[in-house]
User: Fold this.
Amino acid sequence: MKEDRDGTKGGRVSKTSSISQLPLILDIEDFKGDFSFDTLFGNLVNELLPLFQEDQNDSSDVHSSAGGSDVLPNGHLRAPSDAAKSAQGLSAPLFPEVDTLLSLFKDSCRELVDLRQQVDARLNNFKKEVSVQDSKHRKTLAELEKGVDGLFDSFARLDSRISSVGQTAAKIGDHLQSADSQRETASQTIELIKYMMEFNSSPGDLMELSALFSDDSRVAEAASVAQKLRAFAEEDIGRHGIAVPSVMGNATASRGLEVAVANLQDYCNELENRLLARFDAASHRRELSTMAECAKILSQFNRGTSAMQHYVATRPMFIDVEIMNEDTRLVLGDQGSQVSPSNVARGLSSLYKEITDTVRKEAATIMAVFPSPNEVMSILVQRVLEQRVTAVLDKLLVKPSLVNLPPVEQGGLLLYLRMLAVAYEKTQELARDLRAVGCGDLDVEALTESLFPAHKDEYPEYEQASLRQLYQAKMEELRAESQQQSESTGTIGRSKGASMLSSHQQISVAVVTEFVRWNEEAISRCSLFSSQPAPLATNVKAVFTCLLDQVSQYITDGLERARESLNEAAALRERFVLGTIVSRRVAAAAASAAEAAAAAGESSFRSFMVAVQRCTSSVAIIQQYFANSISRLLLPVDGAHAASCEEMATAMSSAEGAAYKGLQQCIETVMAEVERLLSAEQKATDYRSPDDGNAPDHRPTNACIRVVAYLSRVLEAAFTALEGLNKQAFLTELGNRLHKGLLNHWQKYTFNPSGGLRLKRDITEYGEFVRSFNAPTVDEKFELLGIMANVFIVAPESLSTLFEGTPSIRKDAQRFIQLREDYKTAKLASRLSSLWPSSS
Assistant:
């Protein structure tokens, strides 16, 4: 087949030549590798199909030239008719190569069958060979398995043997090691027995000991041996219950190792002292390697406690008197100088920084020398706090007596508390710095707390006593200032002097702010000294209660002083009340004195209103301080916040009572002056003007103008000082009293119609003024007064219809009707009794 395909590549051959080359020969190699049926089929037919394609192309050209008319306008050929198809079939075959291809396919099938038979034959041969080789391989594997099993058995026996031999060797090694250890122990025991005999020979005799105990180069070994002997001897004595004699006795009296124990104790003490002396010498020379060697050896004696304590005790800051005196001068200053918390704070900061730096330097040496540096640091820090720091604190914090308080001029209790707070805070900072440097297992914070129990246990009592002392000193200062101002101004009249004295002792918001500042400072100390919520809440509550007591007492006293001025003004008014029959000169003098009393009353009214205003501001300051600073400290403890709120309300109740009484007195003062003005300024002709033909006067009366002017002037202070419900209640009460006072005042006069018009004008003036009170009930009363004033204006026959819409004021209207000028002449009494029988 390869040859045929190669032959067709040279050029075109005819049909007869291609047929003559058949049958094709297929090669079995064509089916190996990447076999493709399409490729095989193409190789078979490609030699024949190109000839058929050329013939078909030629015939198509002839048909296209001959039958051009069959081409359609769109370019397609018109399908030939059945007659044309039959004529074409008779003239030439449609597929001329079909016979050749059919012959080719039949030959190819025969060759493929032959190839299959060849492949089957070869496959059977391969199966036989594989079967033979497989049987040989199985036989070989069986023989190898037998050999491997035998090999494994041999290995197992060998492993068992090796294990047995190893165990035997290990036992022998253990025995040898045990024997060597026993030999070594026996050798050491012999040596120890020999040394024990040397120490047990005679009491106090250390001269005949072996060279080991006197050789400085073998000090470590000697110390180890001595400790072993001492432990053994003490154990033996303890086992036999024999006490070690305190003094050396006769050797023949010894029943055991008592002499050895005593001698060993003496030797250990002597050796320890010798090592400590060497350690000190090396310390002076700063030979850290020698110090470390000595410390390591000394660690065998009581775990090195003596060496640690000796090293700490020999530090200069614990034994140098000059350093201790310098500490005191640094904190307290030179002798006789006045100490202040700020200077003490700077001094303590400098001292504690120097202490921290010193401890840090010592820590470097301790880490390089001692095998247990943490224990040494613990001892060092403890010694620093208990000796050096305590010495300074004892001189700084001298607790004063609560019976005989130090004078305020020298700082009082407040100076001690400030010193305590500064010392505590700075010492806490020192503890944190020392903890950062290193202090072993020492609880440095707890040790620092232990330095202040004598001061912290009684701290709340001292804080409250200090606040009371400050309050008393402030009150004395205010009284002294008031007295000095009174003396400097002189006496210019009893009423005016009383007024000035009252103003000098007026409530000051600045003073209350100072109370709060004291309390804030005290609360900050409470927070500093109390870390737990419960103790902190207890101390804060006690300190805040002091503030409540101080503010309550201060503002109550201020209000009472303001009330005293109101009482003095009232006394002045009562002193100049005249009888009905007096001389003109006496009346003029009384009127002048009444004017002075009225001025004193107005001044006292203004002073009390200022006091109330400042009292309100002071209470607001306390409430804000409680909300911002106190409340959050009390909330962690159940009930503490509510209890403080209740105490605050109770403390302010006394001030509220004084304020209420004073406001009532203010109303009395105002009404007294209103009555005086009405009595002095109101004329009978104001409401009973003569019928002279002139036009009526529609202006308010002079008395009304004076009263409204006075009220406007004096109540300006009330409008400024009072607020909220207090202002509403005060103005409502004053409006009711003014209404009642005017009614009583008008009962003294007789009214004609023109006088009624003027009265109505006065009522309108009063009503417009009281409308600024924003009190609806008062406004309603003055509106009804305006209605009742109509009884003086209308004709007698119209009175019956005047109050038909307002029967509630009929009773007061009857009283007004009786004041009509024509009440008797018009016989209004009988007419009213017939109209309103219930009134009779």
About this structure: The CA atoms of residues 471 and 550 lie 7 Å apart.
